[in-house]
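Quick one: structure for this chain?
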Amino acid sequence: MIAPARRISYRILLQIETTDAHSDDLLRSQEVDALSAQDRNLTTTLVLGTLRWQLALDARIRPLLARPNAKLSPEVATALRMAAYQLLYLERIPAHAAINDAVELVKQSRERGAAGMVNAVLRKIAQGPPGSGIRGQGREELKEQPQSPEQIAAAWAHPTWLVERWARQFGLEAAAAICRWDQEPAGVTLRLASDQALPEQIETEPGAFLQRARLVMSGDLRVALQSGQVRIQDEASQLVAEIASSAAPGARRALDTCAAPGGKTAILAERLPDAEITAVDVSRKRLELARRLLAPHSGDRLHFRVADAASLRLDPEYQLILCDVPCSGTGTMARNPEIRFRVDEADLDRQQARQVAILKVGLAGLAPGGRLVYSTCSLEPEENQAVVEKVLDETSGIGLVPVARMLDRLAEDGIATQAGHEHLQSAVRGDFLRTIPGIHPCDGFFAAVLERL
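Got it. Here's what it folds into:
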């Protein structure tokens, strides 16, 4: 009998391999929620760990195949990777359990004829290099500090082209820090519903920047989340919404152009209690999730609209607009490790065209003196400062507001902690905010503040 956690993990990994599904969505499914706490944790570990180390796992598996260059079916590749991850990185998992379940999963698939090959390859991996006789060999190669983008990419299972870009943009040491951060289990950060609310069911520590951010150390989150006292939201994501709120504190009309899943819109509603806020998203399903999240703030002042932000026709009536645009997501690979297999350099130019369109639409909706915050969760300049600079060159009557002013205001208002304000100085680059995973303890976000003159 296949262990429930392995069976469900295999299904999730296979779905990610064969569709455009995302791990964070699949790990929140009813099927996963129905598991015991122990099996939920193991499922999360297996799915995210296998995805994080997939490039390294493939490099270990390939030489053991009779035909190393042969294309494996999704079913066989997934079973091999998931079992190899357990053998190489999880020392507490019995080798026989990982191998037997992988073989059985293949037997129950359309590739049952490959079960013998899967068994043979995994037994070779379990034995380790000649003379090693150890488990958990997967991290042995990380003992020496990598000295080049190619070494960093190999050691930390990232695409070489991406590491090369980061090394050029941020420096070799920062590129290595990003990759190390991506390979560790992402911590859970909460947003408190109020300054007083602190769930009793969980143990937390203060966030790095914001008064209402908390890092989860232990405890069962489900009760706390159901109570409405907290919601899960990375601190960099919270910070972008706080910057937007501080950019136009007296706003009477606000627009969030790409609102789902609603975390940033919720902060706008908290910080701008007198503002009429419209939340727009292209996905009806995701906007409905945002509507449920925002239910405590609902009433006559919150409006929801299903629309493509790039096609909106806006009148210049908003004092505040948030454009947290769709992007490559390379700043969030600790949470979404499959991104590294789905993004290539050509995608960045395609994304930029859409991002420019959304930013221009948003600027058209600004009232005189109104402000817009443009943000992404990308580390790539094509999606960040290049978009802002291109739009400024092509649009009259718009100026750039130094983001440092917003950070100062957050500290003055007690929204950012003093230590957080000091820490964030290293995230300011010119007029922009840019958090870097591994350098800052959060996802990688970019933010710029623009103003209608």
